[in-house]
Design a protein that fits this description.
single chain, 73 residues, little secondary structure, two-stranded antiparallel sheet, 1 helix
């Protein structure tokens, strides 16, 4: 899996709220379970968190740990 790294344009909009990302504390996110597609840019962690919650992106994506099992993730 290879990804190209580049700096977004000065007017890049937040994927959640459409604010300019560089007016805030920008975050770049890629879905590398789907061939590391195009990055999504968020202006801050609040917008990223809201996007994750509204799209139910954490469902089924976490390890489940049991203290009684010897093979955990």
């Amino acid at each position: 899996m290879s990804a190209t790294i580049s700096t977004p344009g000065a007017d890049e909009a937040c994927a959640y709220c459409d604010s300019r990302i560089f007016d805030h504390d920008p975050i770049c996110v890629r879905d590398c379970t789907d061939n590391c597609g195009s990055p999504g840019y968020f202006c801050n962690y609040a917008c990223l968190t809201a996007h994750i919650d509204e799209n139910d992106l954490t469902t089924g994506d976490a390890c489940q740990w049991s203290p009684n099992e010897s093979d955990c993730c």
